[in-house]
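Before the break, one more example. Copy the sequence into your notebook; we will annotate it together after we see the structure.
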Amino acid sequence: MKLSEAILLGSTMSPQRFGPARKGDPPEDKRRCVIEAAVEAIGEPAHVSNDRRRFGVDVTNYRALWKAWPWCATHKPQYSCPHAVCGLPSPVWPLLFHLNDVHHWTRPEIAAWVATIEPQDAPLLEHQPPSETHDTSPECAHAGVAQ
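Here is what the structure looks like once it is written out:
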């Protein structure tokens, strides 16, 4: 799955949040920023705690983003913010939350922009959900479903 596809899929799974999760947000708050939505779309849990926070986003989410889509892990400011009056030079990953939190772009708008810059020949991620979510016992293996 390409990053643009994960962002688009993630946008259908939760309401959008602008800005960081804050202490006092109720645990049932399922709003997700663009990065959290993409991470959840590939089966990884989005980390929305206040721990390990940098730039308003849990760095665990960055690690999942970089692992799934290594092309956006660079720290070189190789892109410019596509917002009409901004032009901030930046790597991809900070631009994602910049467009989400500063310019309040929708996640489908961000996905459309990412689709214009992501490598078209990059191998598609064949992500497997974490193994603890699957029952791998022999009695379930023959039919692929729990009995």
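The radius of gyration is 17 Å. Helices lie at 3-11, 34-41, 59-68, 92-101, 107-117, 138-141. Try to locate both features in your own notes.
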